Amino acid sequence: MFTGITTDVGEVIAVEPKAEGLRRLKIACAYPRAGIAIGASIAHSGVCLTVVETGEERGRTWFAVDAAAETLRMTNAGAWVQGTRLNLERALKVGDELGGHIVAGHVDGIAELVAREDLPGMARLTLRAPRELMRFVATKGSVALDGVSLTVNDVTAETFPVLIIPHTLSVTTLGAARQGAKLNLEIDLMARYAARLMETR
Length: 201
Prior knowledge:
By secondary structure, the chain is mainly beta. The protein has helices spanning 69-74, 131-134, 166-171, 189-200; strands at 8-17, 23-29, 41-44, 47-57, 60-67, 85-90, 109-119, 122-128, 142-145, 148-151, 159-164, 182-187. Strand 7 (109-119) and strand 8 form a beta hairpin.
């Protein structure tokens, strides 16, 4: 589990195709190598992937993860190439501060950035989500966009805006997001379960 609070911005430094659509991604980061265990879960722009290898290169830590065909199809991971920057978050430990909201690292779909309004020190992003996911998006509710926990400002039939504060713009990849960008969207777990309960009544 995660909270949607980015703790580092990593960089893809290698992509290696594997059998049956699998890709091995090598990610450079600022985390100490000793603190990254094989088998650890790390969220990569909202996508939870398992560490399979670690190392150091040119004084910088790197780790490798495998992305399966379904992950590449359902998320923006299929477009990651050498040089792609990713919001990283390590899995919660018991006693950690829950600064955002409960995030599973299981992307529900892709949201398209349809408009960006730059304000003094901030930015308002308007996203278009798949219609089947919009019923889970609520005004003042939470979503994760590329792994970043955000509060929804308003909701229309197909879009919703979020306001990005200066700190988030500076420490995540959202600062560089422009119109047309495809962002990983994870809806709020509570909304998902509430909808499922209503369906089974």
